[in-house]
Amino acid sequence: MSKTTVFITGATGFVAQNTIVELLSRGYSVVGSVRSEEKGEMLKTYFGDNFQYVVVAGFENKGAFDVALKQHPEVTVFLHTASPVSFGTEDLERDVLIPAIEGTRNALQSVHEHAPQVKRVVVTSSAVTLSNFSDVSDPKFKANEDLWYGVTYEEGSKNPSIAYTASKVFAEKAAWEFVETNKPNFSLSTILPPYVFGPQAQDESAKGQLNISAEFVAAVYRLSKIDKVPEVFGPFVDVRDVAKAHVIAFENDEAKGKRIITYSGRFHSQTILNIIRDNFADLRDKLPVGIPSNGDVSESVAWDDQKSKKILGFEFIDIEKTVIDTVNQLIRANK
Ligand code: NAP
């Protein structure tokens, strides 16, 4: 018998599926929200009897989670991971900002009104809430848990390159404001990952196009000898550590009311390329050489995230293991 039932929104996602694996391995039961029955049935085949799903379509509508929570009075922990992770859309407000912000507000309102037994809520925010993109990518940037990017809603609604960032800033702010205003029965924690790398929860999901951040590693793996190495760099974390952080955020009382950064270190596309070339003899000759010294990120400034590291209390997976495990999965999945 499981000790606790955890509700997780956006159960199909890269982060969510890895979090479900972590939850089930620790003996929790899980109820996941999905956007269609078909997606729910697919997840059931992956996760088995301790996983149930509920279909919640249109979480930007008020009361979207009411029915699901009424159906599952056993839920005492709520993890909100669902959010549009998209950049190329026609209507930034409709497709990115509103679902992220209203989706968060509606989820918390439903928990407050219909699940008073829920004592812990964790919202997946992002390291992009800490400052603008060039700061967060800069090797000299020293992030800490108190920073907020001062983007405006208007900037987010007009500029495709800022819309996602603004959606995360205003969604996380909406969550903290909700708690401040409504004084619900639950405590809130937020998780702030930078680029999330690492394996998909199932090899099956590693076929074809992956989600945006997982694609960074896959894109380097797919390069051919004559390709230019992409100029992508910044902070990263392994998805398995993000999953663990979501669990510790509701298990550890020290996490109540805290923003928790999950930062492993920095990468450059060339770092990823060097690791693949050094560890996969069969891929070495198919890949470009690039400029190996560009992969050295050892001069980067460490983030000032000790408060988060103390709450989490585990060693983060490094870039080498992230890349090796990811590439091994890509090889298995694409056989
Ligand atoms: P993902 O694989 O694209 O998953 C996104 C999830 O959100 C999916 O379950 C998706 O459902 C759901 N979703 C998207 N738009 C929705 C909408 N309008 N209504 C309802 N559900 C919607 O992305 P991910 O990387 O796992 O992201 C999970 C969370 O982590 C997000 O909050 C994201 O902002 C945050 N995050 C991610 C990264 C990263 O590098 N990946 C970094 C920092 C923070 P469908 O499957 O039905 O589309």
Automatic annotation (TrEMBL):
Record GO terms (molecular function): cinnamyl-alcohol dehydrogenase activity
E.C. designation(s): 1.1.1.195
Keyword Oxidoreductase: yes
UniProt keyword list: Oxidoreductase
Alphabetical list of Pfam families matching this protein: Epimerase
SUPFAM superfamilies: NAD(P)-binding Rossmann-fold domains
Ranges where the NAD-dependent epimerase/dehydratase domain occurs: 6-256
Family: Belongs to the NAD(P)-dependent epimerase/dehydratase family. Dihydroflavonol-4-reductase subfamily.
The protein's name: Osmotic stress induced protein
Native source species: Scheffersomyces stipitis (strain ATCC 58785 / CBS 6054 / NBRC 10063 / NRRL Y-11545)
